Amino acid sequence: MSITRVAAWLITIGLILTLIVVGKSYLVPIFVALVFWYLVNALNDQFQHLPLGRLRLPNSVTLIMSLVFIGLGLYFISDMIVNTVNGFVQESDVYLPRIEQQIERVYVNMGIQRPPPSISELQIGQELLANFALVFSGITSAAKGIALVLLYVLFFLIEQGSFPKKMRALGLDMRSSTRLAFVLKEINTAMRTYLGVKTLTSIATGVLCFAIFQILGLDYALFWAFLIFLFNYVPTIGSITATALPALLALVQFETLTPFLVIIIGVTVVQLLVGNIIEPRLMGSTLNISPLVVVLSLILWSMLWGIVGMLLSVPITVAIIIITAQFPQTRPVAILLSRNGDVNTRKLKRPGRSRTEREQEIPLEQDGKVA
């Protein structure tokens, strides 16, 4: 590879990263809207397959049902978060003395002779109130952002009906049209599979953890279960964070260490069972991503876009692998990002031919050209 090509690649990557950082406030709502758009279409497909006999609901009706369903879900989630934060503020006088008792217990068990610090000395109360204020501010800004996201989703839903017509109007030759249709189909399939399976397994994880919290009598069990559901979308770090937070509350709420240990062990077992056994079976080989790349992309996108970047790191990486695998110049990027280096197993179908020819699948050759 010549020095000129290397320099061109570096400049291109630098410009893309600059655009991602500078345009964060504009790009993040669009990417989040794309995720909601996939969820709306997935719900729309499920509603259209409801067991109603010969009756089939119109597409416009099922789309409205999907939007209403997601809107109600967002409303209940925001209401639950606000009520939970209010509950923490109101019961801070109960939790703060318990924190002092736990600190004193640690000092006694470790044999430390000096008196333990008080809550006022540690300024924990002020820190908690400051964090709660940040949470309220975050909820307010998120509510404003959701309105913009839902507007983008509405535009995507309006545009998706005319997209096939625009594809035909591009006037591409057969090879370019086939390749473009193939890439879009692969991205669509991978995104739907990932979001569908991840949502299903996250719900299962949240329900099982909610049962554990309810049996123990943990405060705000529904909120912690939702947090586990949400953080399950974040690879590796999400599971650890979602386990630590309710465990810390159990350490403060209960007098003994038993609930704390039950939550640590129980939630970890649930996440290992769902994440390492059930989820790979449902996901199959759709997401051909290296585990190291998953972690690195998580770090990169969290640095660029924060929590939203963590949630979107895997879908963005999947799209990059699928797109770069279609062209000889970028095929090495897809191979490096993939789990096993095999990015040539997909097949294309040649459109515009006879029925016999359409049924003959066209493999992608090693040089990236379509046969």
UniProtKB/TrEMBL annotation:
Membrane topology term: Multi-pass membrane protein
Source organism of this protein record: Neolewinella maritima
Chief place where the protein resides: membrane
Residue spans of biased composition, Basic and acidic residues class: 354-371
Pfam family membership, one: AI-2E_transport
UniProt keyword Transmembrane, yes or no: yes
Record localization: Membrane
Lineage of source species: Bacteria, Pseudomonadati, Bacteroidota, Saprospiria, Saprospirales
Disordered: annotated span: 346-371
Source organism superkingdom: Bacteria
Keywords: Membrane, Transmembrane, Transmembrane helix
Protein name, entry field: Transport protein YhhT
Stated family: Belongs to the autoinducer-2 exporter (AI-2E) (TC 2.A.86) family.
Segments traversing the membrane: 6-39, 60-78, 132-158, 195-216, 222-245, 257-278, 298-323
